[in-house]
Amino acid sequence: MKAQDIESKIDEVLSKVRPSLAKKIEYSIDLIRKSEKMALRLDPENGFYNTFSGGKDSQVLYHLVKLAGVKHKTHMNLTSVDPPEVIRFVKHHYPDVELIKPRMSIYDMAKKKHILPTRRLRWCCAEFKETSGAGKVTLIGVRKQESARRAKREEISTDIKGNRNEETFDQWSEHEEQMVTCVGGKDKILVSPIIYWTERDVWEFLNANGIPHCELYDQGCTRIGCICCPMSQPRQKTKEIKRWPHVKRNWLKTIQWLIDNGYIDHNFNDAETGFHWWISGKSFDKFYADEFMQSKIDFDI
């Protein structure tokens, strides 16, 4: 059975999990239902703009939205560096999810911007992910437990005219009327129904309800995202390029183009060196000192 076709009633779901998780499920569903009024006002035809990645958190969100019975449409933004296993999983188990192809590949975007995406300049998310759902109420599967940055998030994030605010639903609903007139263009409202969930909660929900997950989790991956994501650790990136060598080949071509056209001026002799600097996550000075200066030291003196 496809994950998309799994139909459950709320009472059945609640009876299969720990009482503490049951309370979180009820809270999440309640938050989604309370937010639907705003979603329909901004997009009467489709309601919520539900995001999907093929990862475990987005799966939970997908099924909670179904349990809530609200109007929505689910989308997955592709980046051209998506693991093929994830795309196959989504196409098979969630065929109703709209796959949005990028207007240009991440490699061509790097050429256009004349720079590679890095941890400090992560333009890839801005170009391929964050612009989706503009002018709508967008559901996202963010959890506080994931990182220190996300721990500061609240269940409602308003991004109105470049001013980001984090609020609880009660705070948000107090000025809902004024917000309707503000939202437009790229402004949007983000709702995080599983913000208080733990990783244990996520896996318990999926397993208790017999919801299949992507094979990559069973093969050692702890997260599912873009191959060689700038936010990944160097060790993780090294594993990924061994598994998906085509991504390294494409980045080598891109880096060589940037070198040949004078956009990378670190005196790299070849694209291979530039690639290893990029996945190291280090500044160029640190990378050069570790990789080249260290090798010139004569330890036998």
Characterise the protein shown here:
This protein has 301 residues and is of the alpha/beta class. It has 2 domains: 3-219, HUPs (Rossmann fold); 234-295, no CATH class. Helices cover 46% and strands 10% of the residues. It contains 13 helices and 7 strands. Strands 3-2-1-4-7-5-6 form a 7-stranded mixed beta sheet. Helix 2 packs across helix 3 (56-68), helix 10 packs across helix 11 (245-260) and helix 11 crosses helix 12 (271-280). It is elongated and about 65 Å long.
Short description:
With 301 residues, this protein is α/β, with parallel strands linked by helices. The chain is 46% helix and 10% strand.
| Main beta sheet | 7 strands, mixed
Radius of gyration: 22 Å
Enumerate how many helices there are, as a single number: 13
CATH class of the largest domain: Alpha Beta
Average pLDDT number:
86
User: Which structural class should the secondary elements be placed in?
Assistant: alpha/beta
How many domains in all? 2
Assembly context of the chains: single chain
Principal-axes geometry comes out as elongated
N→C terminal distance: 68 Å
Low-confidence stretches: none
CATH homologous superfamily title of the largest domain: HUPs
Quickly give the CATH architecture of the largest domain.
3-Layer(aba) Sandwich
The number of E-state strands comes to 7
Fraction of residues in helix: 40-55%
CATH topology of the largest domain: Rossmann fold
Order of helices and strands: HHEHEHEHHEEEHHEHHHHH
Which strand order do you get reading across the main beta sheet?
3-2-1-4-7-5-6
Percent strand = 5-15%
